[in-house]
Amino acid sequence: MTANESAISEADWRRATELIRAAGTLALACHVSPDADALGSMLGLGLALARTGKKVVASFGDRVFAVPRLLRFLPGQHLLAEPSAYPAEPELMITFDASTMERLGLLAPHAGKAGELVVIDHHVSNTGFGTVHLVDPAAASTTMVVEELMNRLGLTIDREVATCLYAGLVTDTGSFRHSITTPAAHAMAGRLLATGLRPEEIARELWDRSPFAYLRVLGTALGRATLEPDAAGGLGLVWTYVTRADRAAEGLPYDEVEGVIDVVRRVDEAEVAVVLKEDDEGGWNVSTRSKGAVDMARACAALGGGGHPRAAGFSSALSAADTMAALRPLLAPEGSRP
Ligand code: 5GP
Ligand code: MN
Boundaries of each DDH domain copy (predicted)? Predict the structure, then answer.
């Protein structure tokens, strides 16, 4: 594939636009514990379609259904419904930023029974679980794929829709810092800014505000960070964890600790950074990052998760120590594996 050639075939684009044009009702779903790319791509397309008179229902399959506080500023929240109110056998279902059927959580059975299932994603590990696939691993965010779909559908991208798409783009590019930051990503940002959206307000909502309790919990997590210089084939590992007791002591909800990894990953002495986050049920959600020498998508996939080469995750029912013991042997740098 050349740089100019999309991973998505013309036949898939045509099929997706035909299905969406023909459908009266659209059932949209993004991955569980949605981030800005998952929710932004879903609500952006949902808003634009709803404005053309389509009936739109949007959801995600978490057992406790709640939009993370950081993402409540996204327009289109009125389109959201709890999984219990989601159509059991949707005529047309569209998924966003989910690399596997399992990532749909409670909505996976609905996807299994959908008449047609359009999968929109940018994970290279996408398993192709739909009937039509708009999956482009070269896209910096799922919202980039959604923007092209909207253009092909002739939908209007106004400031509210653009806010949703921009939130996904800035999040998944790490504010245009990550290696995936292509000319196309900046060009899209330019088009979205031209709608009049407020980048400073979006940045503040996403990264620059927290309750005071976050400082306390962050301090606890950083205070117990461990550096293992010999791990990851000698390139180094830094890791820490946040327990539910840490959060309960300060009254901090789970979704407030997503940003801890962004502090931990800055350590010069470590190729790999890991943050284990205990949820309210006692399970661990593990965020991992590398600087490029270790393929985190591969390591996390081996433990039942997935993601991108430099940013991936998985869930674990083991203790924090046992989870790290399972992960450490998987951190061999590229080229050093047998
Ligand atoms: P984060 O650490 O920010 O939660 O996730 C980083 C990346 O890994 C994201 O692209 C996210 O979709 C992916 N990811 C995180 N947790 C999981 C998981 O349990 N399963 C899969 N398949 N991907 C995950
Ligand atoms: Mn994404």
Answer: 29-168
CATH number for the region 212-330 comes to: 3.10.310.30
- For the stretch 227-271, pLDDT in tens is 999 999 999 999 999 999 999 999 999 999 999 999 999 999 999
Residue range(s) of every CATH 3.10.310.30 domain in the chain: 212-330
* CATH code of the domain made up of 3-207: 3.90.1640.10
| Residue 1 confidence class, pLDDT cut points 50, 70, 90 | very low
Query: In the chain, where does the domain assigned CATH 3.90.1640.10 lie?
Result: 3-207
Q: Tell me the CA–centroid distance for residue 168 and ligand 2, in Å.
A: 7
pTM exceeds 0.90, yes or no: yes
Which residue's CA is the nearest one to ligand 1's atom 11? 307
Check residue 336 and give its pLDDT. 75
- 316 CB near ligand 1 (under 6 Å): no
Which residue minimizes the CA distance to atom 13 of ligand 1?
307
315 pocket-lining for ligand 1 (C-beta < 6 Å)? yes
What atom of ligand 1 comes closest to residue 314's alpha carbon? 19
The reply to whether ligand 1 has any atom less than 6 angstroms from the CB of 99 is yes
Q: HEC states along the chain?
A: CCCCCCCCCHHHHHHHHHHHHHCCEEEEEECCCCCHHHHHHHHHHHHHHHCCCCEEEEEECCCCCCCCHHHCCCCCHHHECCHHHCCCCCCEEEEECCCCHHHHHHHHHHHHHCCEEEEEECCCCCCCCCCEEEECCCCCCHHHHHHHHHHHHCCCCCHHHHHHHHHHHHHHCCCCCCCCCCHHHHHHHHHHHCCCCCHHHHHHHHHCCCCHHHHHHHHHHHHCCEEECCCHHHCCEEEEEECHHHHHHHCCCHHHHCCHHHHHCCCCCCCEEEEEEECCCCCEEEEEEECCCCCHHHHHHCCCCEEECCEEEEEECCCHHHHHHHHHHHCCCCCCCC
